[in-house]
Amino acid sequence: MKIEKPLILVTNDDGITAPGIRALISVMNQIGDVVVVAPDSPQSGMGHAVTINNTLFCDHVVVNQNEPQKEYSCSGTPVDCVKMASRQILDRKPDLCVSGINHGSNSAINVIYSGTMSAAVEAGIEGIPAIGFSLLDYSMKANFEPAKKYVKTIVENVLANGLPKGVVLNVNIPKLAEKDIKGVKVCRQANAHWVEEFDKRTNPNGREYYWLSGKFINEDQGKDTDEWALQNGYISVVPTQFDLTAHQFIEQINNWPLND
Amino acid sequence: MKIEKPLILVTNDDGITAPGIRALISVMNQIGDVVVVAPDSPQSGMGHAVTINNTLFCDHVVVNQNEPQKEYSCSGTPVDCVKMASRQILDRKPDLCVSGINHGSNSAINVIYSGTMSAAVEAGIEGIPAIGFSLLDYSMKANFEPAKKYVKTIVENVLANGLPKGVVLNVNIPKLAEKDIKGVKVCRQANAHWVEEFDKRTNPNGREYYWLSGKFINEDQGKDTDEWALQNGYISVVPTQFDLTAHQFIEQINNWPLND
């Protein structure tokens, strides 16, 4: 009897050659048949953007000929990559989509700006169980080794248990040695925001321009949040949904005199 | 006694010269002091993208010198425009941010791809009451006149009542004559998705490329949904949140053997 391995779609937002996706591919090759469809250039902060006013290129590539996965490099956003994979490249619906491992945090409100998480959410919208993984280290030299064991455990749990309809997982991993990671905590998204600073400069033609930067402000000290877990040595797992309805306020707003 | 008018930030994703934002500005000028910070080019489908790997330009412009509002044209995404407005342009926190009126629907899952709604959500994250408006007509020649009365009513209600913390409004308006609009319904986001079709072509150099298009599939027949309201002649108002946590599944996933 042939036991079919799960079909796993891998993508990210740092681009197909980023160390984070290479680490994720190496773990997924231990679990299933892997197809990579990832951006040909960095797409950090692209959120749930899709390319509708421009063309898309998507090419079969071989990044390392000793590895078994099939790989495609795509000119679009992370969400484009998932759509391209599921509608154009794959013969069947994948059993799982994993995105990352992102170089940098996607905890708290970062989930909404994150190309990594938007790719996972897009897979979720298409009914594919999906997980976004992020390591709290922005460096391109980040060490992904301590994360690998936990990535494998979480993926195996999702394959074994499935995910509730309409839910994907947002997994963030602290920048710690493996021995210092205390375990995995299922959390809620902390209530936090960015306070932007615009760095104003003048270009050689005398025109003013800006670089966007900012500070992350966490105003939520709850011990059930992803921020608390990460600050205390745990890997955070937030079940994340794409029904954005604030159901609890429908009745209240329905009492407004909107039809008077 | 000087009565201070509300300070209203106006943005959109179709670009600062789109007829939809011009209609929205004309209504807002009846209500408050208006500052426009909007993209210098179409940004549809940009979702919650922010510009972190490129520079931003933002210039004071005069689109119509007979109108009282101040206007700024920005090279970034709709979310960039909101950040630029609140951190760089405005002297004080606006009393309201309105985005649109979008040329085309942002009902159901479209909320997540929409630059219009992402601008409103960004304002919400910054604690500014915010509303995204969309008309179900993609044409640049769309007629925004029937929408104006309802836009004004909804804005006046939000200014009078405020919005719950963490909630913005997603307002969609059917393409109907004013007499045929039945009223306003507060709804939940319908459970729907897109099935993409990639239109494959070959460029003059022989390289294959794609255009993303697709069909919108609504699998949700609930009469409490935005899709139902719009199909039945109502304006839909969905209270929309940016805490993406699927709180109801935290306990279930916590029972997985993630720490064994």
From TrEMBL, chains A, B:
Residues that bind a divalent metal cation, according to the entry? D13, D14, S44, N102
Q: Where in the cell is it found?
A: Cytoplasm
* Cofactor requirements of the protein: a divalent metal cation; Mg(2+)
What EC numbers are recorded for this enzyme?
Answer: 3.1.3.5
| Key words of the record | Cytoplasm, Hydrolase, Metal-binding, Nucleotide-binding
Q: Which residues form the signal peptide?
A: none
Recorded GO CC terms: cytoplasm
Q: Do you know which PANTHER family this protein is assigned to?
A: 5'-NUCLEOTIDASE SURE (PTHR30457), PHOSPHATASE, PUTATIVE (AFU_ORTHOLOGUE AFUA_4G01070)-RELATED (PTHR30457:SF0)
Q: What is this protein called?
A: 5'-nucleotidase SurE
Q: Which organism is it from?
A: Aquimarina algicola
